[in-house]
Structures are given as structure tokens and as C-alpha cells.
Amino acid sequence: MMGAGDIKQFQWRWQQSKYVEAVLYAVGFGGFVYLLTNQVLYGIIVLLVTVAVAVLILRPWRITVDNAVGYIDAHLPEAGYSSGLLLLASGELSNLSKLQQYRVSEQLEPILPKLRPPHKLFRAALVMFAMVLVGIAGRWALQGMGDSAELDKSNKESISFEPKDSLLNTAAIPTLTRTMITIQYPGYTGQGTLRTTDPNLRAVQGSTIIWDLEFDGGVQDVKMDLMGEPIAFTNSGQGHRLKMDLGASGFYSFVFTDREGHEHVSDLYSLEMVTDEPPLVQIEGLDNYSYFEFDQDKRMVFNTDISDDFGIADAYIIATVSKGSGESVKFREEKVAFDASIGKGSRILQLKQALDLDELKMDPGDELYFYVEALDQRTPSANVARSETFFAVIRDTITDPFAVEGNLGVDLMPDYFRSQRQLIIDTEKLLAERPDITDKEFNSRSNELGFDQKQLRLKYGQFMGDETELQAAPGQVSSNQEGNDGHSGEDAEEDLLDGYSHKHDSDNEHNLVEEHDHGNEDQEEEEDPLHDYLHNHSDPEESTLFEKSLKAKLRDALNIMWEAELYLRLFEPEKSLPYQYQALDIIQEIKNSARIYVHRIGFDPPPIKEENRLSGDIEKITNYSKNETYAYQGSFASARKVVSRLEILIDGNSSFSNADQNLIRDAGNELAQRAVLEPLKYLKVLQGLRDLEKSVNRTTEKFTAVRKDLLSVLPSIKSNPMKNAGQKNEMDLLFLKELGVYEQ
Amino acid sequence: MNNSVVFLNQQWLWPVMLVGVLLWAVFVWKESSQRYRPRFWFKTVVAFLGMASLVMLVLKPSTWRESTLGKGIILTEGYRPSQLDSLRAMYKRIPLETYAKGKPLSILNGADSLFLLGHGLEDFDLWQLDEKAVAFMGGEEVSGWTAISTGNETMLGETLEVRAKYSGPEQGHWAVLADNGGNPLDSVPFEQIKEQEIILKAEPKASGRFVYHLLERDQEGTLSDEPIPVEIVEGKPLKVLMINTFPTFEAKYLKNFLTERGHEVLARTQLTKGKYKFEFYNGASNPIYGFTNENLASYDLLIIDVDSYIGLGDSSKNALEQAIKSNGLGVFIQPDEGLFQVSRDHLPFKFKRDVASEFGTGETGRNLHKYPFQFQSSVRKQDIGLDSLVVAAYVPMEKGKVGTTLLQNTYQLVLDGEQDLYARIWTQILKNTVSSWEGALQWKRITRYPRKDEPFDLEIRTSYEDMTLTTETGVSIPLLQDALIAQKWTARHYPRKTGWNQLQFALDSLVPVSFFVHADEALTSIDNYQTLKANRYRFGSENDFGVSVSAPKEELLPISPIWFYAVLLLSLGWLWLEPKLIS
């Protein structure tokens, strides 16, 4: 006999199926999210949310007893639409009802537990599986994509260790659980601390780098191998730490020793140092040279662009004012600040600045040189950069700056007279132009040449002591009168000076040479102001050094010059030319003989007799002996050995030994020294060599690759004569012997 | 003897006879019931005949007869099919056999006049054609590498030179020499000619045994890759004695160069009469005053200036001469102006005046100062060249050498920062002046391209009398001493593996012989070319049979078994038919 309990049970079953449905959906979504994200937490959250949502939608609690009764009535004909009667107590029912209740209960008893409440469990399960499958597919796809990234990661972003010895793969290897690399940039850069796990580092010079490594197994000690130099980590209880200031670029790897004393090495990583560049200073809006008239507005406006990679500390203008000229020049240096304030630490500055020359107290004729200097914030010493130098000149109001002043004993005018060679050239030019010019002009130019010839003659005459001739040409520019920029010989004042400067002759042969070669004897003359006023015949150096022939030659030259001048004056330059040539020849000879003369004053030692040379007392002379040893090591000796060793390993005739390990390390160190200069060329081979230190990498393919790279970077052997093994057999020797006999 | 009968299966004679007699006895016993009738005797005789012919069928009696064999064709690799076709058209049903390396040719039993088509038989199989008339028809032209040669071994720091010949090169292709790692070292473009000679040079970077590669390349890639085994050995540093009467820059810089390169140098400079300055570098010891056989014995090279050389006393001079001739001392005379006036008796060189006082070196555009003299050519004089310039020369004197140079003031190069050129010049000069170091044993390959399971002949020269040569697996190889030259030995070895092989001597002090065995697929064109050459050499290039084989030859030929079959059949037939006739 069944009753209300069974109906209730049916209702409960109905509700239950709804809940299960909700859970199925939830598991589907939750699983999907979990699989995609690989995070359990997200999965659970999504699961719970989906359960809540699904339950809210499905509302299992809304299934009442009436619903159950209705469903039973509709689906079981046996219930005869009377299953509701079962809910009622039999006492409340009429007899007919009781009968019906009894009949229904009898009928339903075997079939009601078999009746399934309406459900969509199948659909829910399908959805769940679909979601999970999609999740798995998605995860797989993501992994596929991630793999390449992952590979990169293993190489770049995390440190992986391999045991050096292949035999201990079975032992528990301590693993690296945490890597943290902290780069503390120098304070002035204004860059924060950078934390990374990527062991390939790039940092500014002076940065502090801290490596924190934690291992989960027992690790005895951890070292960094920086270009062959081991640096130990300190054990801070939790992990291992190394702090280092970055001073140079290089390569490094980590080595740790586990409890059993086995070494494990990591890959090779790069440590790149970036130097702090000095600031870049550019001035715009200004020519290199600026000229101002004294009554002009003497302001210069220019733009300065300053840029630096880590910020500018200061910038200013260095202005140098030069006053006066020649001996009396005076310099004054001023440091001019920019009008705009310099923002300390800014990377780019654009400064507009006006320089007023009046403010710099410049007068006409003064010159200003200025440049902009900028400093960056680098510590301890800042990088300093400066711009190009710019010039500004206030033009002088005086057109002729030179004036021979009374107090200046010697004028500073350069020679103004034509040399014999010039005269010849001019004469020939005149002859060539004769058809094109008027007679008058021809005559006039010929006359001028004659005048020049005379001047030259007078000049040479000085050396002969031809005082009279000098005196005989008053009003003419004297030989040593030096004009400045074409202003010679025009002032009456200079004529007055004439008497003072070179009234007296000078037999100084030195002067002869010097004046021809340089025309610049001011200094000497200044040193000895009396010199010009003295007839220093007593000085043998001065008076008697000319040989007789030399004097005669000069006299000849002067005579010939006379002739040359004569014809020029007669407007017959063509007749004058041969004389001029003769004069030139003689002058050249005189010059040369003067040179020979200087040469001759050298000391000629008397010849030593050979037989006497070694016959002296040599008792005190003893044998001398010296002992030295040079350790000659060919370039890249270890690397070359590695090549031949690899060849044997590739052939498979031998296995990797401890000695190979050391050899490879030596080779790595040799190459690392070069690698600093050319990292690109060497990094691959260095990496290859480092890989060979790990047992897993000792494969033929790897050996072959390293061999190829090594051979491509190794330089040729330096020339060195060596003895080689040869073959010489008796027949050859007999032949050579006979050959020797034949030759004699 | 010639007419006698010989059984080919002589070894079975007695068992077969026995079985025959037994069979006959059984037959006689079976027929014994008729023994009183005449047909019994007749039958017995017939049965004997049958039995005897059966025995003869097995024993194969044969007689000596003049051979009358026909012609045959041997096909080897690279034959021309058209040639074969025309031969076949000419001689119907001519037997033919394709040659396989190392296998005996069976066609030789049936033919004694052979047409040899193709590149020919391998050198070591040629014996098979002894006493045969062979018309060598040749084959297709070999195209590809026809010769590749390198020295036995190259010293580290010297240039490795690979000389090769290529037959039928194609324009646009390149010959590339690559090192063992595959890095290209040198290349030569092919020209459109019949055969091109190619010289490729490289400077090996490490010592050891390597396999370089000679590649043929075009724009797309590598067409062929032939292995070039090279053995790079490290040289020994020198022991040098430098004798100077007075210090010169030239001597000083040369001394610095040698000492910095790790050579053992003893430099002696005269200070005054009987007093010297001795400089010992890198382990040199014991000052030397006068030369004796003993104190010169350990030196490889004597660098001596002209004055010291001329001023040598008689005993020193004799000792020096002895050291050169028997110990192989190298003497380098540092030249000065005086050298060219030294009389002929003192010096093995003759000079003649030369107007030029400079050499122009090609690459650097740098001129080298020289004395205004030239070497006069003589029989013994050997030039020492620097990029085809004769900068120095030496004269071999039995084991040793005497050399000198025309260059002067080479130290200027160092001062001008051209250390490399300086090093190159002096390395070239001194290397050639020093005699090679003589090992206790020298060897050379007779077989140029050894291959697996093919004979590899080598020649050994040594003064050791009792030595044994063993392979890596410990098998000893017999050595054959030359009858005339006691120091010369030959050996033959069949390598078991490709790649580098080694043969050891029982004496530890002797360096093992190592050689490279080529794989079958390597150097095929060279192999073909060599075979062709060997066959041409052997058979001549004329394609008819020589006269040598026309002489008759006698051969053992079996009596045709058909006769025995006939007798057997007749006797068996009679024995079967006879009872039926009677009944």
C-alpha cells in the first residue's frame, strides 16, 4: 500500500534531476574555463556562478506535490487521474474515493518508482561534454602557440641548469625555484628599479645588479662565471644573492654545486653595459661668424637644443672676449647663464638666448668666441659636451690699424720687392703682352720693372756694404722696410724711419739666407736693437765669412743687375732678360754655396786604425751573459686544440673526458676576450662551447656545429719557422753528395 | 703425356669403380641361372659395357688438346652501348659477361680473345687477363674530378695546397675548398675547356687529422662533394745559434723575432777579442766559443754573419762542415756588403751584379731593400721565394743546407709596423734553410686512393730491421724488404673500414701510419679515370688483339659424354629387349 510518501519521493526525484542538470551545466562551464586558463580558482568560481544561475533558471523548488500529481496523472493511465487521492488521508475520503485510492495505490505501487520525472539531463550532459571538449581543444591550441614562446622562455626568460656530468641524471637535482634579478639604475638616471627574470641583461654603466636565486634542494654554493672569473654568491638563508656593479659588458653563466659535490651549469647569458652618452648640444639660428658694425644693434639671438639620454644637469655659455691684436691681445672669459632656467633632469631642452655684445663690454675691434657647454647627471663625473664655437666680431672703425709708432723700434712690414725670378716672369709677361698694349703702358711697365730691379740690386748691395747706393736712393722703400697689407712705401714717416732701421749695412750672411727664405727677421732685430747701428767689423763671424769668390760673385750679380735695369729703363726688356737670367743663376749659386759652407763646419774625426782598435787593454772586459725565457703560446692555442679534439669526438673514437671539459673552458675564456670587442661574431661559438659543458648537449650534431663556428672565427696562424718531419733516404743523400762533388 | 687420358674427377675413381664392379657382380649373380647358355656370356659383356660407360660418365675422362676457344666480351663500367651493339652484330652469339670488382670472370674459361668495353678492370683484377688476347675498346670519357692531390701532411702555419684536375668543367660552376667544418676557404671558377687544372690554397687553423671537402657548386647549391683527407702536424721549435762579430739591428730584430716565437736561441756577439756577450733564450745553455762536432750537434740552425763565417778557424770550419753534412745543420749567412766579395772557395754561392736595389712586393705595395746583386744559377742552388720573388737561396750539402738572402734592412718593416710581412719573409727563409727533422721512419702511400676491402700498398723507409706492422685490431701485416735498398719495405693491407685507419708498429717510438680510406661513393670519377689509365697502359689504346696470344695453347678438355650415353643406352636397350625376343 503506497501513500503520500511515494508521491513526495517522486517530487523529490524530480527536483533532484533539476539540480543535477544545473550541476552538469556548471561543471561544463567551469571545466571549460579551467582548461582554458589552467587556473583552478577561476574554474571553481565559474562553476559556482553557473550553478547559481542554472538553479535560478531551473528553479527546482518550484516543483510542488501538485506538479508531481499532475505529471503522474498525465503520464500513468493506471493512476486514473486519481493519484491526488493518495495524498489525502483515507479517513477524509468517501468510500468510493477510498476504493479508488486503494485501487490507484495498488496499481501505482509497482510502476511509480519506475516513472521518470521530466528532465533534460541528457542535454545537460551533452553540453557539459561539449564544453569540456572545446576547453581541451582550446587549451591544446593555446599550448601550440605558447610552445614557441615557451621555448624562447626557456632560453631567455628563465635560468635552467644542467648537470655537468652525465652520470648523475638519476640523482635528485636541486631545482631553481625562484629567480629574481634586480637592476638598480644609478640614481641620477631617474629610472626605477627593474625586476626581471630574464638573465640576459642590459643596463646603464654604474647600475647595481642583484641576482637572487632560490633552490629547493640542498645547494652547497652558487657561483657566477663571468668571463672565466668565478664570483661567489652569498647565502642569505633563504636564497643566494649576488650584488655587482656593472662595469663592463660580458657574458656570464651560473654554476652551483649540490650537496654531493656535483656541478651544474646554466646557459650563457649576456650582460650588456650601455654607456651614458654625453649630452648633444646644437646651436641653431646663427652663422659661425657674425660681424657687427659698431653702430648696429649688437644682439645675437640663437636657439640651443640640448638633449641627453638620462637628463641634463646644467648648461651655460662660455664666452671669450679678445681685445686688441698681436702682442697686446687680452682674453677675458665669462660664463653666461641662460635666461631660462634649466630644468634639472629634463632630457630635451630648447633654450632661446640672446647675447648682447654691449653687455659683454665689447668695443669695436673686439672679438667674441662662445660655445654652449652642457653637463649631464652622471656620477661621479658628469659627461660634458660642448657645441661648436661661434664667432662674433665688431668691426673696427679704423680702416688702417697699423701705425708705426715712435716707440716701436722696428717696423713689422713684410718685404716688398720682387725677387729676381719674379722679375723674369713679369718681364716675360710684359713681352708677351706687348702687341696688346699701348706703347705708353709698355714703357711705363718696363720702367716699373726697372725700378724693381734696382730695388733688388740695392738689397743685395747691402750685403756688400754698398752704403752709398742705399743713400743714393732716398725716398725709396728700403729693403728691410716691411709694409703691411699693401700699405708700404706711402708714408713720409717711413722715410724718416729709413735712416734708423737700415742705414747701416749688415754683413750678416745669416741674414742673407734668412731673408731670402723667410723674409722674417723681426725677432732677431728686436733682440739686438743696437745691431743696426753698429759696424761690427770686429766680429769674425760676421765680417769675414764670405769667401773672396763669393763676394766677387755677388759683385758680378750686382753688375749684371745694373745692366738688366739699364735695358728695362730703356724700354728694351727683351735685351734685359738675358742679364736677368744670369743674375738669377749667380744668386742661386751664392745661396747654394752658403749652404755648403754651413755643411762644412761639421767635425771630421781622424780615421781609426783597425789594427789598433782591438789591441787595447781588455783585461777588465769580461764575458756577459743574459738568460731569458719567453713563454710562447700561439694565438687561440686551446681553441685550436678543441677543433682537433672535436674531430676525434665526432668520429666517435673517443668519449668526452674531464680534460676536454677543461680544454673547452680554456678555449671559451680565450674567445671571450675577443668576444667583448665583437660580441656578434663570437656569441654563437661561445654559446656552443658553453653548451658542451653540459652533458646532455654532447651530441655529434652539437660537436659539428661548434666545430664549424670555431673554424669560422679562428684567425690564421702567425708565421713561424718550424722544423717539419721530412724524408731523406740514402739514395737522396748519395745523389746530393755526388752533386756536391760534381760542383767542385 | 700429352695423349694420355686424365680423369677430371680423379678423386672419385676408386669408389665409382667399386660401385660399378659391385653393380656388375649383382647383375652377373642375378643372371647366373642362365650361366650355361651362351646368351649369359653375351649379356655379361653388354652389362659390363653399360656399367663401364656409366662409370665414365661420372669420372669424365679427358685429354690434352689444343684449345680452340672463341671470343668474348667483358663489359665494365662506362661502356658505350653502341659499341656493344656493333660488336654483337659482327659476332653472333658472342658470350658476354659483366665485370664485378673482385670477382673472377667465368667467361675466361670459354674465350681467349676478349673485347674489353668500358673503363676496364680494376688494377688488382688485371691478373685475370694474363695470357689472354684483349682488345681494349675504351669507354665513355670520364667527366668530373680526375685527380686530387695534397701532400702527405701539412705543417700547421703553412699553406695547404690542393691540386686537382677536372675533366669537362662547365662554365658557371665553381670548385670550392671547404674545411672540415664546411666553411669555404678558397674557390676557383670553372672555365669552358676540356680539362682544367685547379690549385686551391688554405691555411689550416688547427692540427690534427681532418677531412676537408672539395665541392663543385653552381648557383643553386652543391653538386658534388669529395673528401680530401689532410693531416696537419705541428712543427718543432728550432734550436738556433746566432754568431755575430758586432751587433746590428738586423741581427737584433731577427733574434727578437725568433725568441718571441718560442725558439731556443743562443746569441753570441763579440765584445772584444776573446770576450763575448752570450744571450740564452728559452732554455738555451752552454756558451759556445769554437765549433766542435759536439756543441753543434744539438742545433738546427746557425745564423752567422759574414765576418764570423770567414774568420772561422780550421777546426771550427771542419766541425761546421761536418755538422752540416752529417747532422743536417742549416746555416744561414747574414749578408752584408762583404758577402759579395767573398771568394768562391768560402761560399757555395755565386753572385752577379744587379741594377735593382729594391724588390716590389705585390700585395702591400711595399718595397724591400736588397743588395744590388743576384744569385747566379748553379746546379745545386735552390731558390727561396716570397710570392714568386727570389729573396733568398740555399744550397743543400748532403743532409744540411747553407742559405743566404739578398734582402737588407728588413728590420725597417718592424719599425714601420709591418710585423706580419717581416714574419712572413723570415719564416719563409729560415724554414727553407733548416733541414727537415728526420723521424726514425718514413712512409708513403703507393695506392693513392685507398678503399675498403681493396689492397692498399704502402712503402716504408726505415733503418730498423725487425719491426712488425699491425692493424688496429691487432692483425699483423707482413713487410717485404726491398732486395736492393735494405731500408725500403713494402706492405699490403686490406682496410676493413672507411675513414681514418691506423697501422701501428710494435715499437712505441715509431709514429703510427694513418691513412684515409674512401667510401665507395666518393671519388668515383677519379677511380674511373685511374682504371681507364691503368687499362690503357696495360692493353694499349689500339682496339685489336695483340699478336702475343696467337701461339697455340693446350688445354685439358673432357671427352664428350654423348658417346658414353650412347653405349649405355644401347646396352640397356639390348638387355631389355633380349628376354622379349627369346620369349
TrEMBL record, chain A:
Compositionally biased residues, Basic and acidic residues: 500-521, 530-540
Keyword Transmembrane helix: yes
Species for this entry: Flagellimonas okinawensis
UniProt KW keywords: Membrane, Transmembrane, Transmembrane helix
The name this protein goes by in its record: Tryptophan-rich sensory protein
Stretches that traverse the bilayer: 19-35, 41-58, 121-142
Residue segments, region Disordered: 475-544
Superkingdom of the organism of origin: Bacteria
TrEMBL record, chain B:
The entry's keywords: Membrane, Transmembrane, Transmembrane helix
Residue stretches spanning the membrane: 12-29, 41-59
Record's protein name: Aerotolerance regulator N-terminal domain-containing protein
Species: Flagellimonas okinawensis
